[in-house]
């Protein structure tokens, strides 16, 4: 589990084509200082398993499914990436609960610069728009952010100077793809309500049960 607070702006050193997968070699001295084989590191919001580490670099195998469903397939040697280690038990939840399981990709549509921040507009798949709400949380390329405006086919976020300087979001331009992970709590709520409806139970029924328990 991650928090969406990027620890390091890393770099893709090399990508080896394995046929049905790719082996990424990435540079990240901070996130690799205590990493070992089998550990997890989020790369642009995608949870990857460390194969080996050496000299501030680590390798990770990326399956074809991940390459097809995320923006990792668009990376090349020299690409900058957001890196984050999993949150330790007892650590601070600085962002929100992030699984590192990308729900889909969006496209950066527009950047609107301000005096101290930027507003960024991102188009998203229709299937994800129902999970995105104004002032709710969303993960963009592994960065935990608050939604400013939410529409059926896009949302906007506000980026402070720190986010612009320390993550890939300061480098993205119009047309670039980004990984999106919606708030997992919204998906669980939708699933639970859907099961309740299928069983003939709605929220009013639940309220009545609570009254009976009293």
TrEMBL record:
Pathway: Cofactor biosynthesis; riboflavin biosynthesis; riboflavin from 2-hydroxy-3-oxobutyl phosphate and 5-amino-6-(D-ribitylamino)uracil: step 2/2. Its EC number is 2.5.1.9. Lumazine-binding repeats lie at residues 1-96, 97-193. Keywords: Repeat, Riboflavin biosynthesis, Transferase. SUPFAM superfamilies: Riboflavin synthase domain-like (SSF63380). GO terms for biological process: riboflavin biosynthetic process. Residues 1-96, 97-193 form the Lumazine-binding domain. GO terms for molecular function: riboflavin synthase activity. Gene3D superfamilies: 2.40.30.20. It catalyses: 2 6,7-dimethyl-8-(1-D-ribityl)lumazine + H(+) = 5-amino-6-(D-ribitylamino)uracil + riboflavin. Signal peptide: none annotated. Homotrimer. NCBIfam families: PRK09289.1, PRK13020.1, ribE. Catalyzes the dismutation of two molecules of 6,7-dimethyl-8-ribityllumazine, resulting in the formation of riboflavin and 5-amino-6-(D-ribitylamino)uracil. This is Riboflavin synthase. It comes from Streptomyces auratus AGR0001.
